[in-house]
Design goal:
mainly alpha; two-stranded antiparallel ribbon; about 55% helix
Length: about 210
Amino acid sequence: MARPWGLSKINKDRLVDLLENGTSYIECAKEFGVSIPAIGMAAKKWAPHIHRSKVRTDIVAWNKGRRVYQKKYRKEHKDAIKLKAILGYRRRFEQNKEWLLSYLKVEKITCIRCGYNEFPCGIDEHHLKYDGGKNHNNFHHTLSVYMHRLCLETFQKRFLERDTIFLCSNCHRALHYGYWSLERLKPSEQSKGPEGSKVEIQQEYA
């Protein structure tokens, strides 16, 4: 772990004197022009008896001040924060969508059972490999949700590691409730993607 910024600028005798007079870590940091963690590390090294008694109260005070500042900032910049979040969602969605369509070599993501492909929010992910191969009953893996939330690298890793196939919401829920099984679907030809994953089988189902 990196050393706190400004540790070398702290005068030992001056710091101990300030701490013995009841000066807070925040005020000491301003006095020496260094970070608060640097003051904490120096106090732990040079005045451990004072450090143990002060660290709890100073951290609580600092956290309280930070929460007040963050609340005020969010209130004053509400629209800008919302806009930034929306733009981030859209950027991640477009990046993930472009990679996924290119990887699967299709124009639209389609349900392998019924062929539904009208709206992305109606398509779910189903993982053939999940949590070490264990069965799972979580069928709320909507594709569009993860395309918005995950960066491209995380989305790719999650998609490839879990050997993902795509189902519409209705077929996905029916699968998890046992009304049909993947074994009943017989692909005419099973092909592998460029990374060696068998996710492209949804193109081959009738």
